[in-house]
Amino acid sequence: MKILIAEDDAVSKRMIESTLARWGFEVISTTDGMQAWEIISSASPPEIVILDWVMPGMEGVEICRRIRKLEVGSERYTFIILLTAKSELKDIVAGMESGADDYVSKPFDPQELGLRIRAGKRIIELHNQLRRAKEELLVLSRTDSLTGMLNRRAFYEVLEKEIVRSCRQKIPLSMIMLDIDHFKKINDTYGHQEGDAVLRELSSRIGSAIRHYDVMSRYGGEEFIALLPGVDVDAAANTAERFRELIGKTPFESGKKRINVTISLGVAQLVKDEKSDVLIGRADEALYKAKQNGRNGVEICSS
Q1: How confident is the model at residue 53 (pLDDT cuts 50, 70, 90)?
Q2: How much is the pTM?
Q3: Is the pLDDT of residue 89 over 90?
């Protein structure tokens, strides 16, 4: 864990540096408040900061205020210990109100400071655990648990943003809706576990064939949607044909079973002032047409 020491007293700074290094911390030190702030506001900031109250460049309490302002709206948290010879109650209150987490009076006992740093380390570790758990929950809330693709809710969020971007930048935006042909028959013949395996394999094959900035979603059941920014309807139809061949040319293998799978696909391109539901509806119409025409094919919905 990285710790910053901002202390203009050379003796105190050396004492803290040697103590923290002995405990295995990565130590950065400075004697100037402005330089301390530059380190704290960098791309790789320390997680614990020990600040002298009075320093050249910028006082410790001002750095405290800036740190807390910097953290607003982010997942970042810095544990701050304020180090000073000021010991009156009003000074302690002022220091804590500026954003400090703890307060150590000079002359300080290295053992006491060590205990307070270890407490700060536990708080930072807990904060990081909670942040990671929150990130994992966010991913789970946006992801289809079977295929790992975006779920419908997350897809709609991305779609709305891409529609705005397409209109603002005047670039095409196309959509491919696809459905596994006779999927119920696959489930009835081979069982639902094999049906799930087919969905996973289809997701893997299609996912390997799209660009990194394309968006793929499991829309529901055996139905999927691909969103292709910057692609017009003709190019999207070519992509859909590539998807169709990718799925149909090689049987899906699950254990000793070889399952022949085909898909039907509908393609539509965003038109001016079109809402997301209308675009999806037109892609769905094209998909329905592909199924009506015998399945295992691609159809385009003209604007």
Answers
A1: confident
A2: 0.64
A3: no
Taking the C-alpha atoms of residue 215 and residue 238, their distance in angstroms, rounded to an integer, is: 17
List, in sequence order, every beta strand (DSSP E) within 106-250. Answer: 173-180, 215-220, 223-229
Can you read off the two tokens belonging to residue 114? Answer: 């060590």
Number of Cβ atoms within 10 Å of the Cβ of 278? 13
In angstroms, rounded to a whole number, what is the distance separating the alpha carbons of residues 82 and 50?
6
- Residues forming beta bridges with residue 298, ordered by sequence position: 265
- 289: buried, middle or exposed (CB in 10 Å: 19+, 13-18, 0-12)? middle
Angle between the 192-209 and 233-248 helix axes, to the nearest 10 degrees?
140
The catalytic residue among 47, 162, 222, 274 is 222
- For residue 116, the domain's CATH number is 3.40.50.2300
Q: Are residues 122 and 66 in the same domain?
A: yes
Nearest CA to 253 out of 202, 295, 210 is that of 202
Helix (H) or strand (E) holding 168: helix 152-169
State the number of CA atoms in the 13 A half-sphere of 235 facing the CB. 10
Do residues 183 and 264 lie in contact, with contact meaning Cβ atoms separated by under 8 Å?
no
pLDDT tens-place string over residues 150-176: 999 999 999 999 999 999 999 999 999
Inter-CA distances, 224 with 163, 199, 233, Å: 19, 10, 18
pLDDT reading at 126 higher than 80: yes
Check whether residue 157 and residue 285 sit in a common domain: yes
**In which element (H, E) is residue 249 found?**
none
Query: Is 17 part of the annotated catalytic residue set?
Result: no
Cα gap 96→112, rounded to integer Å:
18
Q: Report the helix count and the strand count for the chain, using DSSP H and E.
A: 10, 12
Largest CA distance in the chain: 86
Does residue 200 register a pLDDT over 90? yes
- β-pair partners for 218: 224
Residues 6+ apart with CB under 8 A from 112: 104
Domain count, the chain: 2
